[in-house]
Amino acid sequence: MRGPDPRVVLGLHRSRHERRLLTGALDLGVTAIDTSTNYLGFHSHRTLARMAGDLLPKFTVSTKVGYFPTPNGAEHSLDPLRLHRAVEQTVRDLGREPDVVFLHNPEHSLQESPSHNRDALAQACTALDDATLNGLCGAWGVASWDPSPLPEVVDATMPKPSVLMVRVGLLVGIRTLEAADALSAAWGVDVRTKWGMSPFGGSTNSSVWDRIDPRVFLRDGSDLTRVQAAFRAAYHLPQVGTVAVGTDEPAHLSQLIDALTEEVDEQAIDEYRHLLRDRVRAQPA
Q1: pLDDT tens digits, 168-197
Q2: Which one of 46, 72, 120, 227 counts the least CB within 10 Å of its CB?
Q3: Contact of 196 with 242, CB cutoff 8 Å
Q4: pTM over 0.85
Q5: Which CATH number does the domain 8-282 belong to among 3.20.20.100, 2.60.40.10, 3.40.50.720, 3.20.20.30?
Q6: What is the DSSP annotation of 128-186?
Q7: Nearest-5° angle of CA 19, CA 41, CA 255?
């Protein structure tokens, strides 16, 4: 059995929520899971409690609030009262306080003037900060799929999240990479508390992994598969300290953990980012 590796979180976005996956993760030393109120058709929390309630104390658990079920499908909201109630419901459904609660994709409700957006984000952050102070969760953070609108909205008067989660990997565009860096700087979040998600852009079976060889981003990745190399490189695009990755197979998770021993060629990463930036500049306005 391996020792705990704090750099890997088992993401449950597309997971079937099977008990064997959680026991397999523990056997590999992965002791953190990430879910959301809206995963598994808004049933993730209750499913985890029913299927693996005895295992949950062995994990640090992060989840997200921001999406709400309606008769017409999921609805996003930054309403502070709804967010606070969602955290309370999370505790009831999980049977425990989560270690981290993320504000989920706040950019989805930023559609008005900058001042309105600033107020809406500040109130949402305050709601999660209050939930933390009230003992409903251990800490709070922000998870953003597209952080581009957020840096100009953040200011020093807002509560500061403990954790920031953004997209990572070779399929992330330069605008998103730079927006993630700008948001980290605006909130003063360092790499140790910056998480990545979706390192493969949704699937390891995509044909893109047959057309490119991510091993060029490692100092010596000759013993790794392309998927393993892509996972290792994702920690530097943008730079994060932890990556949440989803799978239903413990063997796949084991392979990804094995890749963490390899060193990334930071010069190759920098050159890649320059190429991405030059490509955008060359596009017609």
Answers
A1: 999 999 999 999 999 999 999 999 999 999
A2: 72
A3: yes
A4: yes
A5: 3.20.20.100
A6: HHHHHHTTSSSEEEEEES--TTSTTT--TTSPPPSEEEEE-STTS-HHHHHHHHHHHHH
A7: 40
